[in-house]
Specification:
The protein has 264 residues and is mainly α. The protein is built from eleven helices and two strands; from the N terminus they run αααββαααααααα.
Length: 264
């Protein structure tokens, strides 16, 4: 019974990402290989382009694939190298530690975002906009500078919530937040995606829409956790877990799921 693990709901795009990650982990596709075209993958998987692109977005985020404009998508690195980068040092050294912190952030920061949407002043929203502009300008700059701006954005939302207790709770785990952000920034497209996530959050805050702000914050915070779980699962499978993968000629497949035409 000790070997049993919790069961989580997996979206269609996550299933697709896992199958492609498994192919890479099992060396069906090696570093430098070009993946099949979008049209071919959609046909093999019987899915729409939006689902495939979301899966590729996850794989690109964790650095397993690299998308080159006009050339296609290529295998970048295997999951074992990525795990070495994530767990090189620090307090977040286990899967459980990462999961615990992510769950804490989701519970706390989604509500802070909702309160901020209700109570933020025009001046506070302008300060958040300025932080986002600085982040965009620093995407390719020093990691430490980007980290500071990223953290300040989240702390400013907490302050603008006008709930001093919840804002202080977030500050008590500041060191863990910094490490969490640093680890996420080691992934390939993390700075760009962080800016995109913050832009969506800010858009909801400007509309003073608590529900949208809560949802945007949740999606933003879940991004690294999903990427991390993808790396972990692919590494475990590569280490010897039983995986059902069809022959390279037959391509990959999705079991028990067929996407509807709305994603085509």
């Amino acid at each position: 019974m000790d070997s049993l693990k919790p069961v989580f709901r997996v979206t269609l795009s996550e299933q697709v990402a896992m199958q492609i990650a498994t192919m890479i982990s099992s060396s069906r596709w090696k570093e430098g290989d070009r993946l099949p075209s979008e049209m071919e993958l959609c046909k093999r998987l019987r899915i729409g382009r939006s689902t495939l692109r979301e899966a590729m977005r996850s794989l690109a985020f964790v650095g397993m694939v690299r998308m080159r404009a006009g050339e296609g998508t290529y295998v970048a690195r295997g999951p074992s190298k990525l795990l070495e980068q994530i767990f090189a040092q620090g307090m977040l050294a286990t899967e459980q530690a990462v999961t615990d912190l992510c769950e804490t952030r989701v519970l706390l920061e989604t509500e802070l975002a909702a309160l901020c949407a209700e109570k933020a002043t025009a001046q506070e929203l302008q300060q958040l906009k300025s932080l986002l502009q600085e982040m965009r300008a620093g995407v390719h700059g020093p990691t430490r500078t980007f980290l500071s701006l990223d953290l300040d954005f989240h702390l400013k939302i907490a302050d603008a919530s006008k709930n001093q207790v919840m804002a202080q709770l977030l500050r008590t785990i500041r060191q863990l937040l910094e490490e969490y952000i640093v680890k996420s920034l080691r992934l390939t497209n993390a700075p760009q995606l962080a800016c995109e996530g913050h832009a969506k959050i800010l858009g909801a805050l400007k509309k003073h829409n608590p529900r949208e702000a809560r949802m945007s914050m949740r999606q933003h915070l879940r991004l690294f956790q999903r990427g991390y779980k993808l790396i972990m699962a692919a590494s475990e499978r590569a280490a010897g877990e039983a995986v059902e993968v069809s022959t390279p000629a037959a391509g990959i497949h999705i079991d028990e799921t067929r996407e509807t035409s709305r994603n085509a």
